[in-house]
Structure formats: C-alpha cells, structure tokens
Amino acid sequence: ALKIIASAWTAPCWMKDIDDWYLPGDEQNGYVGTGGSLKEGYERYYADYLIRYIESYRMHGIDIWALTPVNEPLGNNGQWESMHFTPHSQNEFIKEHLGPALNDKGLDDIRILMYDHNRDGLQEWADVLYNDAETASYLYGAAVHWYESSNKVSEDVLKQVHDAYPEFEIIHTEGCID
User: Model-level pTM?
Assistant: First the structure.
C-alpha cells in the first residue's frame, strides 16, 4: 500500500506576514531572504486550508496517511516558497489548531508529523513538542530530511531522540546524496 505524507511549502500569501510567497535575499535585506510566517490570528485558517486539501483528495479516492504542518519550517533563505515555524510556534499550532481541527472534522486517522527539516535539528523540536502532553497526544512522530552531509548522518541526534521518545516514529520524508 502506498502511504502519502502531505507537506505544504507555505500558506497562501494572504495568510503570511510578508504578504508574498517569499522574499529573496538582496542588497536591501543583507542577502537574507525569508518565507515569512503565519500572521497572528491566521492559524485556524491555515489549519482549515490543510484540512480542505485532505478532504479534496479523499473526494477523489486518494487517502493522505500523514501530514506535516509545513515543509522546512526553518526556511530556505528566501530561495523559493516557504514559511517559518519555530518549535514553539509549531507546538502551539498543532495543539491549538491543527490537532483539534482534524478531530472536529473526523480526520483523526491522519497522522501528524512534526518538524520536517534537516535531521541535525530534530532534538530541539522533539524536546519542545513531545514534552507538551497535549501536543504529543496529536503526534505520530517526526519527519526528517537527509541533507547537509552524506558522511555525518547525525546518528547521535536520531539515537538520542529515539531513546528519549521511543513511542514516536522518525520518518525520512526528503533527501538526497550530496
């Protein structure tokens, strides 16, 4: 069986504090681009947006197995569409909006994977989200990417997170050999 993990690159522009898909680095911003973040008060709209995506696919007979709040929440320096979360803002988004919204719509079979970025940063996110019992109740595990090093695979981080939180899965969602 094919299991699909959905992960949006960004919320629509009107939901974001930069009112755009992304802002590339340039001389004005010191060559530090950004994807921006959700506007305060738009968290429920974004949760509803993700749910509409899941429901639309279901109407066409395609089941989404798991969902991450966003792909690469640490951003990509404004190189393409993105949207930032911190461990704390993603924790609040899942606890206050995404988890309850999935339950309210009868979509509690959708697994939520937190993080969805490079494996070396997993520990910080796991410590914040898994140690919040309410958020943890919505989580299936973490999504990690396999970038930045082919010879240092951050096995220490993966082992520490697995040993500290064995009830949560760690799933590779994106990567390549660099």
Answer: 0.94
